[in-house]
Amino acid sequence: MEMLKSVSQAFKVREIRAKIIFTILMLAVFRLGCCIPVPGMSATALQAMQNQSMEGIMGMANLFSGGAFSNMTLFALSVTPYITASIIIQLLTVAFPYFENLAKEGMEGRKKMTAITRYMTVGLALIQAFGMTFGLFRSSLIESSVLNYFVITLVLAAGTTFLMWLGEQINEYGIGNGISLIIFGGIIARIPADIASILNKVKSGEANFISVILFVAFAILVVVGIIMVQQGTRKIPVQYAKRVVGRKMYGGQSTHIPLKVNQAGVIPIIFALALLQFPATIAQIIPDSGFAKFYSKWLAMSGNPGVWIYSICNILLILFFNYFYTAITFNPVEVADNMKQNGGFIPGIRPGQPTVAYLSNIMSKISIVGAIFLAAVATLPTIVAKFTVFDDIRFGGTSLLIAVGVALDTMQQLQNQMLMRNYQGFLK
């Protein structure tokens, strides 16, 4: 109710209303592009591929594109090349001093990093489009000519580049993070098909109303858990010492450092999915091989005992990547140094190395909770799908985590916009 009240109040402000409408129109353009097929592809062959299981890397790409990947439309690559480029740049910031210095240069440094990310996105899009055209979708081509290969590769890369530009336009003229909202739009677009699938199961007698109610209750419980953990923070108190500069006294105030419970976000799940579903991609490329038979029994989510092995590997990989990515994004040495330079300290903890050790200890404890939460969200839907009739529901734990996270972030930005205008009106 609070969210609906905030949206209704936002529509009363002309500038915010214009931003919301602009964002909706840009998302409508995205969904329109997801319905326009790439030229040079056979619709019959694509339909045959859709009837097969979309697993592996293809399944993950189809998740982020809202079904555009399986239909081979203009936005089949979605924004996955941009996400990959952003992650690579983030990792380079830790590994190479040049990128680390760019990150510390403020606005100018961020502009250079943004430009590098754009160029890398275009390069990765061309590589992925080339691989898709010559590999996964080669059997769906109408004509195996050099011109057809070139056109399809160029159209797919152009679609990703356009989406990157579309996301930047939402950042500048709309509400929320543009790239995140595009992924959100692709995920939400799959909900009507999942609802129709549930209704069809009820009509056919495969499921009854009690099982549907239990399934919906479980989904609501997962959403509530995601919201609680996504919003959860550990506040570290910080006290700043008083200092006299000239005739004025500075400092003396108290504040805190908010450490998020889920510091790594959805990145560990994406990394774990990429590794676990790589064998599925190989099995789809060579379906009649011994490896494909081994995978379908021992590693696939639909196999037995494959579902248990897959779930255990998924949990272990999420735990590992959660600690790995948290260590990259949160640097306790840098935080302690900044506090020391500004005369800040944690009450009861000496500045310097003791502060670093204290922050590292707290972050490690929080990361355990965050990692268990991510593993549960990513694994529980797989187990539920295995032992219920709702095995074809594509709106899984990863989708929920991304969708809820983006929705919360967008609502936070909307509230910040409203607060800023209220404060301006107060000051006038």
Key terms for this structure?
two-stranded antiparallel sheet, 428 residues, globular, mainly alpha, three-stranded antiparallel beta sheet
Poorly predicted ranges:
423-428
Give the overall average pLDDT.
Answer: 80
What is the CA-CA span between the terminal residues? 31 Å
- In which range does the helix fraction lie? over 70%
Structure summary, number of beta strands: 5
SSE succession: HHHHHHHHHHHHEEEEHHHHHEHH
Q: Numbering strands along the chain, what is their spatial order in the largest sheet?
A: 4-1-5
Structure annotation, total helices = 19
Biggest beta sheet attributes: 3 strands, antiparallel
Please describe what this structure looks like.
The protein is 72% helix and 5% strand. The protein is globular. The protein contains 19 helices and five strands. The protein has helices at residues 2-10, 14-33, 43-51, 56-65, 68-71, 80-95, 97-104, 107-136, 146-173, 178-188, 191-204, 209-231, 267-276, 278-285, 290-298, 306-329, 332-341, 353-387, 397-427, and strands at residues 233-240, 243-245, 248-250, 254-260, 344-345. With 428 residues, it is mostly helical. A three-stranded antiparallel beta sheet has the order 4-1-5.
What does the secondary structure layout of this molecule look like, with pairings?
Elements: H1 2-10, H2 14-33, H3 43-51, H4 56-65, H5 68-71, H6 80-95, H7 97-104, H8 107-136, H9 146-173, H10 178-188, H11 191-204, H12 209-231, E1 233-240, E2 243-245, E3 248-250, E4 254-260, H13 267-276, H14 278-285, H15 290-298, H16 306-329, H17 332-341, E5 344-345, H18 353-387, H19 397-427
